[in-house]
Design a protein that fits this description.
4 domains; two-stranded antiparallel ribbon; about 500 residues; about 40% helix; Rossmann fold; alpha/beta; Dehydroquinate synthase-like, alpha domain; six-stranded parallel sheet
């Protein structure tokens, strides 16, 4: 298997490491930084955590503090003008995801005179005018470790995904002590954002063994500590775990990409100014339920690693527990629905089709295990409008789930009338074509019949109307074992395992 690995050249992780920013600049021969931050960081004095040690080292520091939440291309242009007016050799993005994303976009935009929209995906923005050093103050975006930045086109109300090595920070400082003062609402939103990064990287069609390892590690850190960090802001252990998990999730999705949640989330933020992490949280349970049938094993493993399910749970049960657990998080963290956020329902309906088109255009839905079309994305927007648990999608005919690809002993009989065959898992519903026995242990032959199922818990023994046996354990010799009598019998009309007399594969 061939794949790429993309990550910053240097990461400094630990409590109090923000004070060592001067060491990183010296390591790379940099001495004229421009700090890109926001007014809140300046007003609270938190930005002094990096300015003071630099000034103490005799380094003159410039500051651009006009960034805004969900940064726009107009803010990036203003930042580039400020940058060009000074003699700077690097940018320090300090704050949440917005200041860091702004710093990345400034470095890319300063390469030429093209507008920001010229760099949006699928364009590969692999060059930046200045290196970026990222210092996050929230445990969520993972922007300190990714090759992505998201900027809103103010004229078109479109969130543009910009991807490339030009957006990859040269270095990063991950200091969990910077998060002690983060408000509870921001802790919740950024925490779910970090978890969604890990989950979507894990189920992404572009996942690699490298991204998988980091995604699982991130989920194991974030899931048990999110609520603790929310309710106990000064809990150093929980804050440290969240910060490390967010960084691991960032590296993971930087190499595997995100999927449908983020694709649908960006238009909500652009049109209705919903914070990015919050819009992800609104969508996560419903999109997870929609996607489970296409990657049930992966979602089940995510549930087990996150503590929502146990090793004894079947994949079907574990995946359901994951979706239920995400909905429970939304309730515990007071995540509103779009309606509860105060969005005008008429405007939501009017923009729904445009949002679906913009989501598809971003390319992220194409990485999802179950790739939706525009109609399905519009239906998902309807589902989350008034209830973000996602349970309503089961009753929405527009989101009918595809038949699951059963494996091994859980094969479908081919004539079941209910949504789930008794042999495939939940409900033990009878299929209507054969008598079903204990769940998951017996199979029907796959054709209309009136015969009975064998009681050896493994294979069909006999099907009267078709008068054929399943070879199963025989090879090309056509020999199979009758487990009732402990004998071997030759089936002259069936020379290969799993074929009937006409040679059709069962």
């Amino acid at each position: 298997m061939e794949f790429n690995i993309v990550a910053p050249r240097f990461m400094l992780v630990g409590g109090g490491t923000a004070g060592r920013i001067g060491e990183i600049l010296a390591k790379f021969g940099l001495s004229r930084p421009l700090v890109v931050t926001d007014p809140v960081m300046v007003a609270t004095g938190l930005v002094r955590r990096v300015i003071d040690p630099l000034e103490k080292a005799g380094i003159t520091v410039g500051v651009f503090s006009d960034t805004i939440p969900e940064p726009t291309d107009t803010v990036v242009v203003a930042g580039v003008q400020h940058m060009r007016a000074g003699d700077y050799d690097c940018l320090i993005g300090f704050g949440g995801g917005s200041p860091i994303d702004t710093a990345k976009a400034m470095a890319i935009l300063a390469m030429g005179d093209a507008p920001m929209s010229a760099y949006k995906a699928p364009f590969a923005a692999d060059r930046g005018a200045l290196p970026v050093i990222a210092v996050p103050t929230t445990a969520g975006t993972g922007s300190e470790a990714t090759r992505f930045t998201v900027i809103t086109d103010a004229a078109r109300d479109e969130k543009m995904l910009i991807a490339g090595l030009g957006a990859l920070p040269l270095a990063g400082i991950v200091d969990y002590e910077l998060t002690f003062s983060v408000p509870k609402r921001t802790t919740a939103d950024t925490g779910i954002d970090a978890y969604s990064h890990a989950l979507e990287a894990w189920v992404s069609k572009r996942a690699t063994p490298f991204s998988d390892a980091l995604a699982l590690a991130a989920m194991e850190l974030i899931a048990p500590n999110l609520l603790t960090a929310y309710h106990e802001p000064q809990n150093a252990k929980a804050r440290e775990a969240m910060m490390l998990g967010a960084m691991q999730a960032g590296i993971s999705f930087s190499n595997a990409s995100v999927a449908l949640v983020h694709g649908m989330s960006r238009p909500i933020g652009a049109h209705f100014h919903v914070p990015h992490g919050l819009s992800n949280a609104m969508l996560l349970p419903a999109v997870t339920r929609f996607s489970i049938p296409a990657a049930i094993g992966r979602y089940a493993e995510a549930a087990r690693r996150s503590g929502f399910a146990t090793a004894s749970d079947s994949d079907e049960r574990a995946a359901d527990k994951l979706a239920d657990g995400l909905a429970a998080w939304n309730a515990a963290l007071s995540v509103p629905t779009p309606r509860g956020f105060g969005i005008d329902p008429a405007v939501w309906q009017a923009k729904k089709e445009l949002m679906a088109e913009q989501a598809l255009a971003s390319g992220s839905p194409g990485n999802n295990p179950r790739v939706p079309d525009k109609a399905e994305i519009m239906a998902l927007y309807d589902v989350v409008w008034g209830a973000n648990s996602g349970k309503d999608l089961r009753n929405d005919p527009r989101l009918a789930q595809p038949r699951r690809q059963a494996r091994g002993r859980d094969r479908r009989c081919g004539r079941h009338r209910s949504r789930h065959c008794a042999l495939a898992g939940r409900g033990r519903r009878r299929c209507g074509a054969a008598r079903s026995g204990r769940r998951g242990l017996r199979q029907s032959c796959g054709r209309p019949h009136r015969g009975r199922l064998s009681r050896n818990r493994r294979r069909l023994r006999y099907c009267r109307p078709l008068e054929r046996r399943r070879c199963g354990e025989g090879g090309d010799s056509g020999v199979s074992r009758d487990r009732y009598r402990g004998q071997q019998r030759r089936h002259p009309a069936c020379q290969q395992p799993g074929r009937d007399r006409a040679g059709r594969v069962e």
